[in-house]
Every structure is written in structure tokens, then in C-alpha cells.
Amino acid sequence: MGYWCADQYLIGLRWFQMDVCVQARQILTQAGINRPCVAESYVWESSRDIVFLIAFEDIRPPERMSDVYLLNIDRAESIVQGMLSGAEIPPIEVYPIVGQNTEFRYALFDGYHRYHLSIAAGFARIPALIVEDFFGRN
Questions:
Q1: Known InterPro entries for this protein (predicted)?
Q2: Are 120 and 23 in contact (CB under 8 A)?
Q3: Interacting residues of 118 by C-beta distance below 8 A, sequence separation 6+
Q4: The pLDDT value given to residue 79
């Protein structure tokens, strides 16, 4: 089961997050992706690291600073072209959420564009590396 939009995961976050979802869908539509993908995820870079396929409902939706709220068009189009061509795209990076009463298991560390574009593309899960939270954000 894929998710066409992140609306259900953005409840409680700032309204500008909804704009990112709309923008991601527009970028995908312009690239020729008009319906949800049937693949489970995009093709990711192979490396010596262990990559997990994590369901979106396990990742706390990312927030951005109030002055940076939309996707960078060039970056987003590059990722979409990689998805369309089957190129290897780096996995996102998440860190475990520990010691908090939350429905989410992970928080996004790196991969804001890949996260939103993958949801908009209809992928069910996303390739992710699990990293430590060196900044104490838990």
C-alpha cells in the first residue's frame, strides 16, 4: 500500500508542510509521474552500511526552519530523474527516538527532499540508514 500524500503524517505540524506535499506532487507530475508508484521504494546506493526499508508511519515528519519551507526545485528534479531512471539514490538517515512517548520510532536526520518526494511518488517505505543522534534532539 503506497501513500499518495503525507497529509496524514503532517497533522500537528506547521501549515507550510502541506505546501511541501503539494509542491512534491507538482514536481512529480511535471516529470510524468501522475499516479502512485507500484514499487516499494526507490533504488538505493549499495554500500557496506546496512540499509533498512522503513515505513513512513514510523518516521516523525520533519520540520524545517520557518524561513526554509519549500523544496529546492533543482535538487527535487534531480532526485525525481534518478527515481525515473532507476539510478541509485542515497538512503535517508534517521535516528531512533528514545525515551519519549511518541507513535514514531525514528526522526529524520538527512533526506528531507527524498522523504517528501518518496511519499508523493507513492512508495510504501523508504531506504534508510539508522544513525546516532549526536545532537541530543531526542
A1: ParB/Sulfiredoxin_sf (IPR036086)
A2: no
A3: 41, 42, 56, 126
A4: 93
Beta carbons within 10 angstroms of residue 130's beta carbon = 17
Beta strands in the chain (DSSP E): 52-55, 59-60, 92-96, 106-110, 125-130
The answer to whether residue 138 is domain-embedded is no
Within a domain: 135? no
Q: Which domain holds residue 22?
A: 7-130
Average pLDDT over residues 47-71: 82
Label residue 2 by pLDDT band (50, 70, 90).
very low
Q: What angle do CA 116, 21, 4 make, to 5 degrees?
A: 80
pLDDT digit string (tens) for 101-112?
A: 788 999 999 999
**In contact, 116 and 21? CB cutoff 8 Å:** yes
